[in-house]
Design goal:
Blueprint (H helix, E strand, L loop, with lengths): L1 H8 L10 E4 L2 E6 H19 L11 H22 L7 H12 L2 H10 L14 H19 L5 H27 L7 H23 L1
Antiparallel strand pairs: 1-2
Length: 210
């Protein structure tokens, strides 16, 4: 299983050992930041699916927009600051900033795919800001559980691999919805297949050139 999840992880992550988690000799398939990002994406996709929000097209409330924008600020600050040498980041910071950025990505892709300026957009992606905050806290909790070493390797590995597929699947959902606007097409069901295909192609290229 490790070879498979590592293969999936290579489609999005550098997989540097010093920035990853270990369970004995088993290294996580993603670095700490990507582990939290993909965990947040999984939580976001599951919530939107279970809540029946695949047709969500109503823009976020002002507070929701502010929260979504601020959620990406920590990862930008930590990433740029550590890259420029202002400070040395650590796995706790990487997990926290990754979780903040990851949880909201599916909702943003969903809104971008479904919103139409030519019609009334009444279907909510999130009914209120509380739903966003709940997802944010769940993503942070997942990241902290990984950082604390509470969650087993196999669970984190599976979540990471499926999260990578969902990440690329979000792009496919946006593409398919744009191409089939106004037509009945199972975009939500076809997107995972497109995500899997993209992961396979990207990971294969990465493996060949590395």
């Amino acid at each position: 299983m490790k070879e498979i999840v590592d293969f999936f992880g290579s489609a999005v992550c550098h997989q540097m050992a010093e920035r990853s988690f270990f369970w004995g000799s088993c290294q996580s398939p993603l670095c700490a930041r990507c582990t939290a990002i993909e965990g947040g994406i999984i939580l976001g996709v599951i919530f939107l699916w279970l809540a029946g929000r695949k047709d969500g097209n109503r823009p976020f409330s002002p507070s929701g927009v502010m929260l979504a924008a601020l959620s990406f600020l920590p990862i930008a600050i930590d990433g740029v600051g550590s890259y420029l040498g202002f400070w040395q980041s650590n796995n706790l910071l990487r997990v926290l900033t990754g979780a903040l950025a990851g949880y909201g990505l599916p909702g943003l892709f969903l809104l971008a795919a479904n919103f139409s300026p030519a019609k009334e957009n009444t279907n909510p992606v999130y009914k209120n800001t509380g739903e966003q905050i709940g997802l944010l806290l769940a993503a942070v909790a997942y990241g902290l559980l990984v950082w604390l070493g509470i969650l087993p390797y196999f669970l984190v590995a599976i979540v990471s691999a499926v999260g990578v597929v969902c990440f690329y699947g979000c792009f496919w959902f946006l593409i398919l919805r744009t191409m089939t606007a106004g037509k009945k097409f199972p975009c939500f069901l076809c997107s995972p297949a497109g995500g899997f295909f993209t992961v396979f192609v990207v990971a294969t290229i990465v493996q060949r050139i590395s």
